[in-house]
Automatic annotation (TrEMBL):
Residues of the signal peptide: none
Entry superkingdom: Bacteria
Gene3D superfamilies tied to this protein: 3.30.70.100
Protein name as annotated: Putative mono-oxygenase ydhR
Matches recorded under InterPro entries: Dimeric_a/b-barrel (IPR011008), YdhR (IPR014910)
SUPFAM superfamilies in the cross-refs: Dimeric alpha+beta barrel
Database matches in NCBIfam families: PRK11118.1
Organism, scientific name: Thalassobacillus cyri
Length: 100
């Protein structure tokens, strides 16, 4: 069974292409996390919010990443960090999958 990690937080920026350029190394490093499958990066520049939706192989891997990422963001002065882990209902998800 796979698990979704939903994370969001307030952030002053950068957003858009500047965010993509600034966080490219971070994005590459996430690929090395235990149990990581994929991430969708989220942002709302008007509301000054950012975050992501992650897919992990196990609940433990998602929780471990959330704890580490929360501490990393706090180190950047970003608080609070909202994070939730959800089980994926795979049969229903298969009906609605996005092939990209």
């Amino acid at each position: 069974m796979a698990y979704i990690l939903q994370v969001d937080f307030n952030m002053e920026g950068p957003f858009g292409s500047e965010m993509a350029e600034s966080f490219a190394d971070l994005a590459e490093s996430i690929n090395q996390e235990e149990g990581f499958i994929w991430k969708i990066w989220t942002e709302d520049s008007e509301a000054k919010e950012a975050g992501g939706i992650y897919l992990f192989e196990t609940k433990e891997a998602a929780q471990k990443y959330l704890a580490m990422h929360t501490e990393r963001l706090k180190g950047f002065g970003i608080e609070p960090v909202n994070g939730n882990v959800f089980e994926v209902n795979e049969p229903l998800t298969a009906i609605n999958s996005w092939a990209g």
